[in-house]
Amino acid sequence: MLYRADFHIHSCLSPCASLEMSPASIVAQAKVSGLNAIALSDHNCAFNLPGFAKICEQQGMACLYGMEVTSSEEAHLLCLFDKLENAMEMGARVYDSLPDVPNQPDRFGDQPIIDENEEILGFAEKFLISATPYGISALLEMVHDLDGLFIPAHIDRQVYGIISQLGFLPDEEFDAVELTAYGDPALALDYSIVRNSDSHCLSTLGDACTEFDIDALTVGNIRSSLLKSRAD
Amino acid sequence: MKISDIQSLDQFTCVQSEYADAEVSSGYTSDLLSDVMAHADEGSVLITIQAHKNTVAVSSLAGVVAIIICNNRPIADDVLEAAASEGIAIFQTAENQFQTSSLIAQHLAGCPAA
Known about the structure:
The complex is a heterodimer of chains A (232) and B (114). With 232 residues, chain A is an alpha/beta fold. Chain A is built from seven helices and ten strands.
């Protein structure tokens, strides 16, 4: 099956994202935008993944459960799982490790936790744009131990990309690197490339996406497909 | 000043001492490694809170001879091992980057505050 995938989408839980980004609205818009595989990847928090999982199942949308984790280097790393419980485990570790700095909604935006019916269940208290104390290598190990994909996000950006933070792309066991829609593929060196929209509002969903010709949307299949694209 | 002069100051604990005692010609204070790579001088001491092995890699490329980790941030063993193999000294301090920069600047100028 050919999956047209956008694996970097923020819900309203991310303070920088639009409040229109409920899991239900994301799935509805993804269909309109011609996507048949998506991942929710909020900043340093998995609280909206259970609602996202339910609505994806109800709507027959193939999905991965993700997060965009901030390393101690303040680089953004996309972490993707095909098992909700593994994503929640990683999410708990990441959220617990954030500094005890509360969000200031007036300044940064709200961080609502939403269920599949768009009901507000509560708010994430800690400011989600903070950095975890974990370095890139430590995060990679945690994600791989939980059978997830580890992908440095938007490496072509001038802020919060691994290259903007370190000055170079380190030699690690990354499953791929992510580029924005028009990012220069030369930046990826020998790594496999995925492109995602990094949407913070509905209108940009699918503006960048990656196609996977695989039987089912699993971490194992995606990893094989990425390795093959690297070999090509 | 030399690297060993940093080691002799009370504020700094040397946590990686396998280094040749080179002259420290200047300092650079930054927590953004791409900025360190672009602007740190050869022979400088890097003042930062970034205590991971990429700090060592960037320091090596830029010719940084010593790294001071501020705010007593923890330093993993793989960082110390990487620094030892590159011969880059690492110090840890409870002081912040501003206080450390001020102190090192005084010593570089040869007029430490009494």
